[in-house]
Amino acid sequence: MFEDCDSEDRRLIVAARAGDRSAFDRLVADHASRLLGLSLRMLGEKSDAEDAVQNALSSAWLALYRFDQTKPVAPWLTTITINKCRDIMRRRRISRLLRFEAEDDANSIAHPDPHQEERLIIRQNLEFLQREIVRLPPKLKEPFILVVFDGRSHEEAAKILGISRKAVETRIYRARNFLREKFEII
Questions:
Q1: Distance from C-alpha of 115 to C-alpha of 123, rounded to nearest angstrom
Q2: DSSP per residue over 40-63, as a string?
Q3: How far is residue 178 from each of residues 132, 141, 142, measured CA to CA in Å?
């Protein structure tokens, strides 16, 4: 929920602005795992997701003096993280274009198990879904991930992305339809 920055966050922000790195670390500690999950869903690769979060937190540290203390920290960090994910996705597209790289398909190694085939199918479906979410156009992927995986309301996602609530609803609807169509193919 969008709430005003609480007094503890304000105290940490003041200390961090004065150069106290440990205050900044405490300020962002509660958000790091959520931001990593968000980045992983957007990018699909753990190392890229970790890079995006690290870059986002570095950028937040450098931009802390511009942070409006009347606003909550979570949406600010989420916005920075989404922007870092966008940067990585742009670099990927350029890299693929320049090197003509084909995307790798995930290889699964089967384990001896009585329900091996069922688990393999489930895992393959989850991997397929993750790849398709990563392939969604950013304007569909961002609101979808914020609402479905990050647990944001449509209104919160709209504020973070700078679009209307109706645009968020429409884009999530289109993302779900796109994913549903992909699953009908397999």
A1: 12
A2: HHHHS-HHHHHHHHHHHHHHHHHH
A3: 9, 11, 14
Give the residue among 69, 99, 98 at the shortest CA–CA distance from 4: 69
Domain 1-104: assigned CATH number: 1.10.1740.10
| CATH 1.10.10.10 in the chain, residue ranges | 115-186
Helix (H) or strand (E) holding 117: helix 116-135
CA distance to 26, 95, 103, per residue, from 98 (Å):
41, 5, 14
Rounded distance, CA 30 to CA 82, Å?
17
153 near 147, Cβ under 8 Å? yes
Q: Which helix (H) or strand (E) holds 87?
A: helix 73-99
Residues 69 and 66: their CA atoms lie apart, in Å, by 9
Going residue by residue through the chain, which has 186 residues, state the pLDDT in tens, using 9 for 90 and above: 334 567 788 889 889 999 899 999 998 998 999 999 999 999 999 999 999 999 999 999 999 988 888 888 999 999 999 999 988 988 877 666 555 433 444 444 444 555 677 777 777 777 787 888 888 898 999 999 898 888 889 999 999 999 999 999 999 999 988 888 887 755
